[in-house]
Amino acid sequence: MEETKKRVFSGIQPTGVFTLGNYSTVRHWPKLQDECDCIYSIVDQHAITVRQTPADLRRQTREMAALLIACGIDPARSILFIQSHVPAHAQLSWVLGCFCPFGDLTRMHQFKEKSAKHPEDINGGLLTYPILMAADILLYQTDEVPVGDDQRQHVELARDIAQRFNGVYGDVFTVPAPRISKTAARVMSLQEPTKKMSKSDANENAVVRMLDEPDVILRKFKRAVTDSEGTIRAATDKPGVTNLMSIYGVCTGKTFGQIEAEFAGQGYGVFKQAVAESVIDALRPVQEEYKRLLADKAYLDGVLKDGAARADAIAQRVLARVYKKVGFLQI
Ligand code: AMP
Ligand code: TRP
To answer: What is the tens place of the pLDDT at every residue in 109-135?
Structure first.
């Protein structure tokens, strides 16, 4: 690995099947592999902040690895590993928690949303989630964190923690920055287009999943919520149509201006059909590669084992430095 390359780190939870929203963000990751030194983690420890069925979590973790490779992450050029395989994440998380004010945690959007959604289980992990995420990022001296816009606040918290720690102990951590692609549109729910499309949405019609068959994708788009105006243009008071336009943009590379021109004078029916077809075409090669990879468990497990060993070697060095700085006796 060359020292001069920028270090990039990102994580994704192995919960539920990947959505078109995740794809809109993750499809930018492979392009970074040439210019940067990339590390991608499947964050199973973050996933248990919400109750999971153990067998499903295990299966989905492997599936997520297959899906990321199918999306273009090349294990020969990037490190791909499972978070719980590298103990330093949990270890650093404890230390960083002692450098994070309580109020910073309670004001996080994701904490507010998730605690409203699971009022019966507002556990400590849900609150301290961003500290573990900061540990993920800071353990690798990360320069940039490619994420969707919904994670900006968490990356900023990691940045604050790094600066606070450095302020006390000198330059220990690289201060990370979010890397939010302008074209990584925040994909919204097809049924409630002011909410983000989420893997855990109970309404299946709201979510396009990476492994949905073409007829299912078409049906979901046909049912997508729009408005009564009947013109295809982007506007804040037209969240449904704007969302469909941004999805079409993700899949075809077209701008809002080009899309408006293309569908001028046409109705929502024609437009929805075109959006669905663009999604089906974009997902097809990824789906085929995913199925091929998932059939080869030995290969996948080999990749993950190798990734964990490489990640661990980097993480151990940084953790040892932190332990020394904070005054843990080393014998
Ligand atoms: P998660 O599903 O929360 O593990 O998110 C994995 C990655 O996908 C993160 O970088 C998120 O920012 C991104 N992401 C999740 N949902 C969406 C969405 N609806 N639109 C765009 N990006 C998303
Ligand atoms: N919190 C992120 C999400 O829900 C996932 C994540 C965990 C992550 N650790 C990370 C993203 C580190 C970037 C860097 O999407």
So the answer is: 999 998 998 899 899 999 999 999 999
Distance 199 CA to ligand 1 centre (A): 9
Give residue-wise pLDDT tens across range 218-240. Answer: 999 999 999 999 999 999 999 99
Q: Tell which residue, 11, 1, 2, has the closest CA to residue 176.
A: 11
HSE (side-chain half, CA atoms, 13 Å) at 121: 8
Q: Which residues line ligand 2 (CB under 6 A)?
A: 9-13, 43, 46, 133, 136-137, 145, 147, 151, 154
How many residues appear in the chain? Answer: 331
Question: How are the residues of the chain apportioned to helix, strand and coil, as percentages rounded to the nearest 5?
Answer: 55, 10, 35
pLDDT digits (tens, 9 = 90+) for 31-48: 999 999 999 999 999 999
**Are the CB atoms for 247 and 185 separated by under 8 Å?**
yes
Q: Please report where in the chains the tokens 């270090």 appear, as a residue.
A: 7
Number of neighbours of residue 284 by Cβ within 10 angstroms: 11
Residues in contact with 177: Cβ distance below 8 Å, sequence separation at least 6, in sequence order = 143, 144, 145, 155, 159
Q: How far does the centroid of ligand 2 lie from the alpha carbon of residue 194, in Å?
A: 22
For 316, other C-beta atoms within 10 Å of its C-beta total 15
| Exposure of 306 in the CB half-sphere (CA atoms within 13 A) | 13
Query: What does pTM read for this prediction?
Result: 0.87
Alpha-carbon span 231 to 264, nearest angstrom: 7
**Beta strand residue intervals within the chain, DSSP E:** 6-12, 36-42, 79-82, 144-146, 177-179
Asked whether the beta carbons of 155 and 178 are under 8 A apart, the reply is yes
Q: Which residue has the tokens 């151990």?
A: 316
Dump strand ranges (E) for 156-276.
177-179
